[in-house]
Amino acid sequence: MRAARLSIVCLTLGTLLMEVGVMGAHSGTIPPMVGFVAFLMGTATAIVASLFGLVGVVRTAAPECRPWRAEAAVGLALGVLIAVPTAMAMWR
Fold this sequence. Notes:
Layout lengths: L1 H26 L4 H28 L6 H26 L1
């Protein structure tokens, strides 16, 4: 249950870091390198969120934990949707 909640919290934090990094560097409010580091930290946080989501899906297999399974699945899916394209773009 905690892993499901942590996946959503990490996903929110990662998305905010990525947005602040890109928008801040683009608008000139923060230096470009700081924006890039914030973007990378957001990607790393999204990867951690997808791992927490995976752990949450496995741990909520018991019938008494079923209400948390949807939250863990959302954390896993959105974490992968954010982390994989960004990591593939950086890999090239």
